[in-house]
Amino acid sequence: MRGQSAEAEAVIRRIRPDEVDVYRPFRLRALQDTPEAFGDSYALASARPPEFWHDRVSGMSAGIGTVLMVAADAATDSWLGMTGCYREDPTDEWALVVSVWVAPEVRRRRLARRLLDAVIEWARERGVRTLKLWVTASNHRAQSLYLGAGFTPSGNTQPLPSNPALQELEMVRDI
């Protein structure tokens, strides 16, 4: 919108329990758009039963051990982006940032950074001391985003689970 900033056009919030029918197609769109950015594949995700999606949204909306933050259009509430974070064990002092994705038509509006800030705050409130994430080695735009958000390369690498021909770099940030 003219005269308004991207900050005013999007609201960053936690996924709601009733948004299964929004989350599933949005996640599948992300997997189709940027398959090299996810450890999951479109083929596997699209074959999952409805119970999987309901369970996932239920856990993420509760925001206890896992969360999904969404960037939603302030006027229409349609989703523009998402970022997740989870702790494998509630006693861990670290959590993993996952599923950072913004729709192509609204990229370069600082939404990914705002989503990262939201999961950083969520983690901080839960006593997390370190955030980790994996980024595909060839995804320089994402690496730049993460560097700007305070993440640094740890030196660890691994094959991308959904495409072992690609390498991922681990990045970490203390909070």
Q: Can you give a write-up of this model?
A:
With 175 residues, the protein is α+β, with helices and mostly antiparallel strands. Helix content is 34%, strand content 33%. The protein has a seven-stranded mixed beta sheet with strand order 1-2-3-4-5-7-6, sandwiched between helices.
Question: Gist?
Answer:
The chain is an alpha+beta fold. The protein is built from six helices and seven strands, in the order αβαααβββαβαββ.
SSE arrangement:
Elements: H1 6-9, E1 10-14, H2 20-33, H3 42-46, H4 50-62, E2 66-73, E3 79-86, E4 94-102, H5 111-125, E5 130-136, H6 140-148, E6 152-160, E7 163-174
The tally of beta strands, per DSSP, is 7
Proportion in helices: 25-40%
Strand content: 25-35%
User: What is the class in the CATH system?
Assistant: Alpha Beta
Structural class by helix and strand composition: alpha+beta
State the CATH superfamily name.
Gcn5-related N-acetyltransferase (GNAT)
Topology as a string of helices (H) and strands (E): HEHHHEEEHEHEE
Q: Low-confidence parts, pLDDT < 50 over ≥5 residues?
A: 1-7
Overall number of domains? 1
CATH architecture: 3-Layer(aba) Sandwich
Spatial sequence of strands, sheet with the most strands: 1-2-3-4-5-7-6
Largest sheet: 7 strands, mixed
Quaternary structure classification: single chain
CA-CA gap between termini:
34 Å
Shape: globular
- Rg (C-alpha, Å): 16 Å
Give the mean pLDDT.
93
Number of helices: 6
Question: CATH topology, what is it called?
Answer: Aminopeptidase
